[in-house]
Amino acid sequence: MLIVHDWDGLTDYEMRRADMLAALGYTAFAIDVYGADVDPQTVDENRALSRALYADRDTFKERLLGSIEAAASIPGATDDMVMMGYCFGGAAALEAARAGAELDGFVSFLGGLGLPEGQSYDAVAAPVMVFHGTADPVSGMADLAALLDALEGAGVAHGAEVFGGARHPFTVWGSGDYDLAADQASWAGLLGFLDQRLGGIDDAS
């Protein structure tokens, strides 16, 4: 399991999600696409770092694909891998999918869903799963519909679970918009997707 961080960089949030997956028997690897020496502390820094990668898709893709290559060599890694992420990380998972990363699945939680200029889903190599809130102010229902249309048009297997009234950070513990029911349901949906794509926890351990 490859977990891409939110726009505030690699934090305890992603590490806790990795621990949750590890407790279930998965090998979880938290990816830092900003770099080990970068530790944003403010909203302005978060915005600048994420926008820089959105503006330089070649670098974004290079770092994601490089992280996949590095993860393949860690103890416990197997040939079966799924990439997931929250918010910025959800957009990153879709970026890796469009780049043709040879993984077994891609999962976006409340991610940015827009299709960058010049990109398509024609090279996606595995199913895409999306978990999203209907009240998300970052990517709305029109963006979700456009994504699903694009995946359907490209012949990519896909699924989506939508949570009524859930806002952008509905999975982030302690945030003002945390939604326990949506968080738990989306996590259960993730585990179902992993069971389907990776053949169950016993095979992934």
Describe the structure.
This protein is α/β, with parallel strands linked by helices and 205 residues long. Helix content is 42%, strand content 13%. The chain has 7 helices and 6 strands. It has a 6-stranded parallel beta sheet with strand order 2-1-3-4-5-6, sandwiched between helices. α4 (88-98) links the parallel β3 (83-86) and β4. It is globular, with a radius of gyration of 16 Å.
Classify the secondary structure makeup into a structural class.
alpha/beta
Low-confidence stretches: none
Tell me the helix content: 40-55%
Mean pLDDT: 93
Q: Quick one: biggest sheet?
A: 6 strands, parallel
Q: How many helices in DSSP terms? A: 7
H/E element string?
EHEHHEHEEHEHH
In what range is the share of β-strand residues?
Answer: 5-15%
In total, the number of strands is 6
Principal-axis shape equals globular
Radius of gyration: 16 Å
Sequence of strands across the biggest β-sheet: 2-1-3-4-5-6
Distance between the termini: 11 Å
Which SSEs are present, and which pair or pack?
Layout lengths: L1 E3 L7 H12 L5 E3 L11 H13 L1 H15 L11 E4 L1 H11 L7 E4 L18 E6 L7 H13 L4 E6 L16 H19 L2 H4 L1
Parallel strand pairs: 1-2, 1-3, 3-4, 4-5, 5-6
Give a brief outline of the structure:
The protein is α/β, with parallel strands linked by helices. The chain contains 7 helices and 6 strands; from the N terminus they run βαβααβαββαβαα.
